[in-house]
Amino acid sequence: MPDGGYKSLDGFAIELVTETSGKNIKNQIIGDQHVDKLSFPRLRLASFPEMGYKGSDFKAIANMIKPGLIDVYRTKTDHNFRGRYVSTTNNDNFYMLVPDVVDNPRRSMKTIIHETTHAIQDWKQWRETALDREVDAHFAAALYMVHAGVSTNDTVMTYFTIGAEAYAQDKKEVRSRWFGGILQKMKAAVQTHYQAMHKQLHPNEDPAKFLKNFNDKQRMDGIG
């Protein structure tokens, strides 16, 4: 489908921009020297760095941003999120980003790195809980910001930034008891944040159902 096509997802009106703005996002990821430094283990498997993320993975995903492989959609309006990466069992894979992120990729790398981390998880077909996926994605964004010298006022990122600063100084720190304590605080911050977002979108749903789904292992595309 050429750019300019529309679809609806979960009630959001989104416009296809893969061949236009999507190219800008692709080029921003590929051309950003700080992306090369984003090598870190999956945090729940910190003792096995070879099973984690590499800077080259982020650039490999960027090269997949093309029609029909990984598309980019721009929401027509702003929402209470800045971006999502969506993967389905029908192999329909795409970024869904708010206008500010699409129009200003250079200053929106926190969001782009976060969602690209999810794309890597999907590409590698890792079976993880949503909680572990989100922890890794937040850590990737924090590590990028540490290397880029960028700060954030996002309180959810507080412990991620602390952990990323320590990891950037000494990669062995990720296996320390101290980091394990920080990791628990990262998990608590993420779960609280997404539980609140879910309650806002689905006020009548049993919170226990969200927690069960958030902590069940499955692939990004929903395959168990």
Provide the fold topology.
Layout: E1 6-9, E2 12-16, H1 21-31, H2 55-63, E3 71-75, E4 83-87, E5 93-97, H3 99-103, H4 109-124, E6 128-129, H5 130-148, H6 158-169, H7 177-201, H8 207-214, E7 217-218
Parallel strand pairs: 3-5
Antiparallel strand pairs: 1-2, 2-3, 4-5, 6-7
Helix pairs in contact: 1-2, 2-4, 4-5, 5-6, 5-7, 6-7, 7-8
Q: What descriptors fit this protein?
A:
single chain, alpha+beta, 5-stranded mixed sheet, two-stranded antiparallel sheet, 7 strands
Overview of the molecule:
The chain has 224 residues and is α+β, with helices and mostly antiparallel strands. Helices cover 47% and strands 12% of the residues. It has eight helices and seven strands, in the order E-E-H-H-E-E-E-H-H-E-H-H-H-H-E. It has helices spanning 21-31, 55-63, 99-103, 109-124, 130-148, 158-169, 177-201, 207-214, and strands at residues 6-9, 12-16, 71-75, 83-87, 93-97, 128-129, 217-218. Strands 1-2-3-5-4 form a five-stranded mixed β-sheet. A hairpin with a 5-residue loop joins strand 4 and strand 5. Helix 2 crosses helix 4 (109-124) and helix 7 packs across helix 8 (207-214). The protein starts with 5 loop residues before the first strand and ends in a 6-residue tail after the last strand. 37% of the residues are buried. The model has no long low-confidence stretch (mean pLDDT 92).
